[in-house]
Design goal:
This protein has two domains: 5-82, 2-Layer Sandwich (Gyrase A, domain 2); 93-248, Cyclophilin-like (Cyclophilin), CATH 2.40.100.10. The chain has five helices and 13 strands. It has 249 residues and is α+β, with helices and mostly antiparallel strands. Helix content is 24%, strand content 27%. A hairpin with a 4-residue loop joins β1 (5-8) and β2. The longest helix is centred in the first third of the chain and has 19 residues, at 24-42.
Length: 249
Amino acid sequence: MDEPRILSVGDCAMTVEFGQKVDPQIHALTLGFASALGEMAGSGHLAGVIEWAPAFGSVTVHYDPEQIGQEGLAGILLNIARKRNMASAAGQRWRIPVCFEPDFAPDLEELADTKQLAPEAMIALMTQPVYRVYMLGFLPGFPYLGGLPAALEMPRLATPRPAVPAGSIAITGRMCAVYPWESPGGWRLLGRTPVQLFEVSAKRRPALLAAGDEVRWCSIDRAAYADIEAQFRHGVFEVSALLASEDSG
């Protein structure tokens, strides 16, 4: 692998880059680096650092320049990065229910026609892999998931939709994602989950998913969708029920 690089991002942030491609091993380095930062911050050895955000192959570190200089912090970060600590374990494993009814999946039929597959075969392809959460971005709690089968690869829509419903399962290229909020978007919509992806009142972990987590989609019908949606609306859904056991895949 390439030597890690330090890139300046203005006068109060810098990015530590481990690679420029979507790769599980490179991503493990970013998570290992982020974990090392957490341990140092927890022991009081990272004064001046405010927060950090891992991405596909890099971690951006935000700091207070009145507490620590850029050059000094760059040396500390590079020293940590050169140890090449990889995340020793995956994050949490989730089984997230998705409804693939036509009104929840407006691009499913067109994509099936393009790929010369039956819609049922498309759904089987969507629900077979274990996806990896590489990063959160674009919107609060918006996860970028790797692991989409090559057979489903498609470019973005030529004209983005002005409003994509919250909970929409979307794909573009070899990536998959979930829209936690209603938003404009140009990804292809293949289903929708009733699961709430972001809870503002949950101060410790407002986003359900985190970098390093694994996700598997579980197909449900409209009745099950409505039931889960109602449970979330009334604040009685047990999120722990979505956690997958090690032997469940």
